Structures are given as C-alpha cells and as structure tokens.
What we know:
By secondary structure, the chain is mostly helical. It has two helices and no strands.
Amino acid sequence: MAWNELFSTDIGLLSLFTIGFVLAMAVYIYRFAKRHIAEDEQKERTLGHHS
C-alpha cells in the first residue's frame, strides 16, 4: 500500500524526487570536497618542497 502511494500519487512522486535530489546533492558535495582536499594537499606538498 505504501509503495503504491509512493509511485502513483503526486505527493509520493514529489517525495521520490526530493529523496533523489538530496542523494545526488550529497554525492556532488562529497566529490567536490574530496577533489578540493586533494588539490590543497598537492599544493601543500609542492610548496613544502620549495621552501
């Protein structure tokens, strides 16, 4: 019954969209932060060798 309501009603579909959007946003933020942390560590290593 709950699955039927989730996939067939407007509010259920809106809930699914919201859950999907939040998960996609979490993945994006995780990848964004991981990439920038790696860049900062690389910059720190290169600056450390020249000092």
